[in-house]
Specification:
single chain, 64% helix, Serine Threonine Protein Phosphatase 5, Tetratricopeptide repeat, 33 helices, mainly alpha, 629 residues
């Protein structure tokens, strides 16, 4: 980014032309009431015909209309055709660029404005400071700060708040604190900016200290804290914060509801999620498409797909995000046909699918084994909708082919694709090679995966996958080398954990956990279930234990998996016949999957389990995934 030129000594810009022209009023009215981009073009044509193209007031409204529909290229063309744009027109353009995520271009436009001797005001300073914060461009941000001081604009409260945001986003907390201390009104708004900045940098304790210093917290302050805790995966703290908000009598808004639903979705806390849903109804919080999407996601990720579908059908505002949430929900819960049909319904109703839509429907095809349908949908991205597939879409396609055993075809696709593969895509193929015992091809994938260009992005899961691949092949030395590389890099393996919600409380278990107050009853129930299941023909699938130990040790290793502990706790602590819901942070193993199927049969319980990839609905000895996961 080039540096800013010194500010010229200029007279202030003139205000908008103060004409009462009916033609202008009519044009502005139509621009403000456009409902889609297609409606803008004919109005723009009339603007040119009527000689209004260089009217700054109309150019301002035209740029704002383009911004509403994310038509950033159109907006830039409009701006370039505007003769001698003033500060208001520049502000509209910079606002549009910031809204579209083109932060660098927004900053460049401000630099151009200064070079063209256009005098800045509070509004354009606010917009470009926001862009600097989002772009983390501290250098230009400091220069704009200097401009603001020279022009006397930094006494403006909104400018000071934006400067605090800039320094906070760039982790310059001393500068942020100095600006805060200089403010005559150090109120809840300024404190909220500080809290948000700390949370953005994962400084949860500092954010909590600042939050507790706020004597009178408004809904925005509470919501910022809850949202930050959710983004930092401090779900329990987020729930407690929400309870405190209720005790202090602060009414939640739509954003608060979305944050809370996100926390419930992450935890798989269905009962708590239902309570939040009832709170939304009780407090008459508007169920717009954001809230509806969050509700659908919460119910889907808690394994209650029927409730999710009910919310979708009742939603009055259905936008692309609502459909995306429902498609992803169906995919997650093994409802492949329903996901494909929802995709078709969306298209038939004239709602244009996005990149996120295709990720959802391709995932559904992958988990359902609908290879040919998935390939056709993938091809339609570019052919029918002009969307260029990204790495996540190719990743879905590799997974689709790999799960179906077409691993060589998947490997060829990686070689030919114009998108560079990442470690997730290669890991998916390696997992398929392991499942279908394509060891020679898998070894090629391992060499690519551990090559220099991927070594930095490889996480613990990658090395564990490589180790497990070699273990399943019986190459124990290579497996140990992969584990050694994991230790050498100082990367920690994520411990397996499972949680279950009983009576509104969430109980978490680790592998071989013995810390629960009812541990003796849990392990006694585990022994009891083992005897019952063996009577049903169950035998531990010890071939899934990828360790060079004896059969007895392998069986013992399987018996203490975290999902089994959570399941046994659910069996002893809930009513007979009630459903059990378990959330696991890793993929469920073959043996636990087979065991839980039998438990659902002998106990007469419906067991819903969410692992890292999807949901498994166990009932009467069967699973919704059809053993294809």
């Amino acid at each position: 980014m080039s540096s800013l030129t010194p500010l010229p000594h200029l007279p202030p810009n003139s205000n908008f032309p103060n004409s009462n022209s009916n033609r202008r009023k009519n044009t502005i009215f139509h621009l403000q009431n456009c409902r889609n981009l297609d409606q803008i073009a004919p109005i723009h044509t009339n603007i040119i015909k009527n000689g209004q193209e260089h009217d700054h007031f109309i150019a301002f409204e035209l740029l704002r209309a383009c911004s509403r529909f994310d038509a950033i290229d159109y907006a830039i063309k409009v701006f370039r055709r505007t003769r001698q744009p003033n500060v208001y027109v520049y502000t509209a353009l910079i606002d549009a660029l910031v809204a579209a995520g083109s932060h660098h271009r927004a900053i460049t436009s401000y630099v151009q404005m200064i070079e063209n001797s256009v005098y800045p005001d509070n509004f354009v300073i606010n917009s470009v400071l926001k862009a600097c914060g989002l772009e983390l461009d501290l250098g230009i941000g400091k220069q704009i700060h200097c401009h603001g001081l020279k022009l006397g604009l930094c006494s403006n409260r909104q400018v000071k708040l934006k400067l605090m945001e800039l320094y906070g986003k760039c982790a310059k907390f001393d500068e942020m604190q100095k600006l805060f201390d200089e403010m005559p009104e150090r109120d809840v708004v300024a404190m909220t900016v500080m809290i948000s900045s700390y949370l953005e940098h994962r400084l949860v304790e500092r954010a909590c200290v600042a939050f507790d210093l706020v004597e009178v917290k408004d809904a925005v302050c509470w919501t910022t804290m809850i949202d930050g805790l959710v983004r930092n995966e401090e779900m329990s703290k987020a729930l407690e914060c929400f309870r405190r908000m209720q005790r202090e009598g602060v009414r939640a808004n739509e954003v608060t509801a979305v944050c809370m639903l996100s926390a419930c979705a992450h935890l798989g806390a269905l009962e708590l999620g239902k309570w939040v849903h009832s709170y939304i109804k009780k407090c008459y919080i508007k169920v717009n498409h954001f809230v509806a999407s969050a509700l659908i996601t919460m119910y889907s990720r808690c394994g209650s797909i029927e409730e999710a579908e009910s919310v979708f059908l009742e939603a009055k505002e259905k936008e692309v995000s609502t459909y995306n949430s429902m498609i992803a929900g169906f995919a997650l819960n093994g409802k492949t046909m329903e996901a494909i049909e929802m995709f078709q319904t969306m298209v038939n109703e004239g709602i244009r699918p996005t990149s996120i839509t295709f990720v959802g429907v391709l995932n559904a095809c992958s988990h359902g084994g609908f290879v040919d349908v998935g390939l056709k949908i993938f091809e339609s991205m570019e052919n029918d909708y002009g969307l260029e597939p990204r790495v996540e879409h190719y990743g879905c396609l590799i997974d689709l082919l790999g799960r179906a055993g077409r691993v060589h075809e998947a490997y060829e696709l990686i070689q030919e694709t114009r998108v560079a593969p990442d470690h997730i895509m290669l890991g998916s193929l390696l997992s398929s090679c392991k499942a279908h015992r394509a060891f020679e091809l898998g070894e090629k994938v391992v060499k690519t995966l551990l090559a220099h260009e991927f070594s930095e992005s490889c996480d613990a899961g990658t090395y564990i996958l490589v180790s497990n691949f070699y273990s399943s092949w019986g190459k124990w030395d290579e497996a140990l080398l992969a584990r050694a590389e994991l230790r050498k890099k100082g990367v920690e393996k994520e411990p397996g954990s499972s949680s279950i919600e009983v009576g509104g409380e969430i109980h978490e278990f680790l592998l071989g956990d013995s810390s629960h107050p009812r541990r003796e009853e849990i392990y006694a129930k585990m022994e009891e279930m083992d005897q019952k299941l063996r009577g049903e023909g169950y035998h531990p699938r010890i071939d899934g234990v990828l360790q060079d130990v004896g059969d007895r040790e392998k069986a013992r290793a399987l018996a203490i998996h975290s999902e089994r502990l959570a399941l046994c706790y659910g069996l002893i602590s809930s009513e007979e016949g009630s459903s059990l819901r378990i959330v696991k942070n890793l993929r469920v193993c073959d043996d636990c999957h087979a065991m839980i199927k039998l438990v659902s049969k002998v106990s007469g319980r419906k067991i819903v389990m969410r692992d890292r990839n999807r949901f498994h609905h166990f009932e009467n000895g069967r699973c919704s995934c059809g053993d294809y996961w």
